[in-house]
Amino acid sequence: MNQTENQLLAHIREYRRKYYVNQIIRGSIGLLLIVGSILFLSIMGEGLLGFPASVRTGIMAVLGLVFLGVAGYYIVWPVTKLFNLSQPISDREIAELVRTHFPEIDDKLINLLELKSNTSADNALVIAAIDKKTEELAPIKFSHAINLNVNWKYARYLAVPIGLFLLLFFLKPDVLRNGTKRLVNFNQEFIPPPPFQIDVQNHPEELIAGTDFKLEAN
């Protein structure tokens, strides 16, 4: 294998690595956005309404399933492919992807891969054609077709659940604190707060048994 062919294969490997890194980044953003939104709605609802233990258990179960499902499919699965723990995309699939980003490539990379897989070592004409196509394609960095910086556009949406949590923290800290506490202890029953408050106006320091006392309260 000559240097030009090594360079071409290196570009294919780099594209494959960047392809899965991009998937992992997007999956992580999606996971934080989905779980953060569900968690905010659950905490606010629990803090305001006070769900029974069965409802809180259901909320935590749904939250756990969503977390495992999204994390497994969009993060863990690409990680296994990134580290070759499962079958990654093939060179042919990469060729199909990069042709849409590099008009000058067209079918050249696909044809090259087909020639390499079907040719015999003693076919000098085909080997010469492979060498020519390899020299044409080797300088092209296929990984440039994937722009990781685009993910910042999606990451900005994380400001929505973060902003809502901050707003709740400053405006209704009791709702945030109580809702979080009850969700964490989802299998416990809590006595809901009364819909009214009693403010004793003349609370005495001492009371003498057998004496009358007039209680003033609002």
Provide a descriptive summary of the structure in words.
With 218 residues, the chain is an all-alpha fold. The chain has eight helices and no strands. It is rod-shaped and about 115 Å long. The model has no long low-confidence stretch (mean pLDDT 87).
Helix fraction, binned, reads: 55-70%
Counting helices, strands and paired strands, the structural category is: mainly alpha
Q: What is the beta-strand fraction?
A: under 5%
Query: Count of DSSP helices?
Result: 8
- Radius of gyration (CA) equals 31 Å
Annotation, overall tally of beta strands: 0
The sequence of SSEs as H and E is HHHHHHHH
Biggest sheet overview: none
Mean pLDDT: 87
The dominant shape is: rod-shaped
First and last CA, distance: 90 Å
What low-confidence regions span 5 or more consecutive residues with pLDDT below 50? none
